[in-house]
Amino acid sequence: MRLSKETIEKVRERAQITDLFGSTELKKSGREFLACCPWHDDHRPSLTVSPKTNRAYCFVCARGVDPIGWLQDQQGMTFTDAVVHLADRYNVPVEVADAEDQARYQAEKEEREKLFTERDQIQQKLHAAIWDSPGLSYLSSRGLNKETITTWGIGWNGSRVTFPLCNEQGRVVAHTGRVLDNTTKPKYKNSTNSLIYQKAEMVFGLSKAKDEIIRSSHVVVCEGQMDVIRCWQEGIRNMVAVSGSSLTAQMIDRIIRQTRAKKITLCFDGDKAGTLAAHRARRELMPMALSGQVQLKILCLPEGKDPADLADVMAAEIEGSPNWVEWWMNAEFAELDLDTAEGVVSGERVVKTILRELPDGSLREFVKTRCKELLKAVPSVAPAKIRTKKEIDQSRWAERRAARLYLLDPGSRPALDSITFKDPWILKAFELIKTLEMMTQNQPEVLAPAFARIISIADLEQQAQLMSLVYPIPEVRRVVESNPLGELEAAMEVLGSIREDQ
């Protein structure tokens, strides 16, 4: 959907950059204001917020934004979402570029409001039902008091305890329900995806934890809603949870944009599934940790325990959680018997794998020191070259561009067939594309529709991004159709230069 130029200009005229800051965030300085800069480690306010220019600008970073850009950067909104958000706030009528889009926008807007109203009504009924239900005894057995139950709006639907799922603004967009024992499957059941809720993008508890995460610059990410709520009751107010899906770099990026968190502690249950989830998350977030975007720690609890079980001691557990490299090494060596030749060989293989991922520096030296203690020798492995965030973003953009071109332009497929995709969700998408290509007997014209049908009915993470490969915005589709060779050369140039550097 393309917004009309008139709508964008009216929003830029009316929206005030100072309105997007809390009263305690701004410090008066002459005719302007100062605030802490979110783009660098700012110990004293160096971000100039100017009512005159209607921009926020940091002279240290040489970076500035208007109100639209601020929402894009700090809340992870798209340009369109930021404009629409500000238009609603400042009572600017939203008009789009053509009549067809206008009708679709209006219909979606009405559907969103209808869904929000329905969710609010459902939430009121569910929460009212908890006080005279078996669910109340269950919640009490898990250590929750009435104040916490009320604060989090926990409810009852006749068979499950329910938890409201809220967006960043705190509005209820869906619900998840948990059975009282483990005999009924599935144990958790979520609302279906809708215009206002996508399961794979949900971060539970973020609207409540946001202020504390901003204050401490530290977010703790766990696996379950009950973990967040029980730890909240114990005073741990910077914890959030993924809701029924694996943790992704996109989720962390959204949290960082909204909270400017610099420290991330991943907390997983003490079972085999928790360990596997920790390894998946470590692989997903490793580029962010290595590029210096975040300080990453990983905490795996004792077997059979989760954060809700250990809520009274979780603050100390979180404080003592190991760096991700230390956790990785400990987790791998815990499975080995170093009194056997086979165990030593496996240990050397583990160390080589870890060292290949690490550049020269303190983490690499830590691994080498531990390796010498455990194996009495250090294998020779060349240090890794670490990509910057800009390089990572460029690579993801180019891979997405290449996968989209493969679907939409059959003539480009031979040249793109040899690409080794690095981005996890693009790699999965391309594997699905290749499978469908064989199933459709290499009929170019049916590949994209077949891919779209699979994605539309599957409950997959990154569903919206996958659908955008087939149905890009009109401007992008016009470029692909009018100049596919130019698209191909642009994507290959970026990917080629990055691979060559690596």
How would you describe what is shown here?
This protein has 502 residues and is an alpha+beta fold. The chain contains 21 helices and 14 strands. The strands form three sheets. The chain has a five-stranded antiparallel sheet. It has a five-stranded mixed sheet with strand order 10-12-11-13-14, sandwiched between helices. Helix 10 links the parallel strand 13 and strand 14. The longest helix has 31 residues. The protein is globular, with a radius of gyration of 25 Å. The model has no long low-confidence stretch (mean pLDDT 86).
Structure characteristics:
13% strand; 5-stranded antiparallel beta sheet; 502 residues; alpha+beta; 14 strands; 5-stranded mixed beta sheet; globular
What secondary-structure arrangement, pairings included, does this model have?
Layout: H1 5-14, E1 27-29, E2 32-35, E3 47-50, E4 55-58, E5 63-65, H2 67-75, H3 79-89, H4 99-129, H5 134-141, H6 146-151, E6 155-156, E7 161-166, E8 172-178, E9 188-190, E10 203-204, H7 206-216, E11 218-222, H8 225-233, E12 239-242, H9 249-259, E13 263-270, H10 272-290, E14 295-303, H11 314-319, H12 324-333, H13 341-357, H14 362-375, H15 389-408, H16 413-416, H17 424-439, H18 444-457, H19 463-470, H20 474-482, H21 484-501
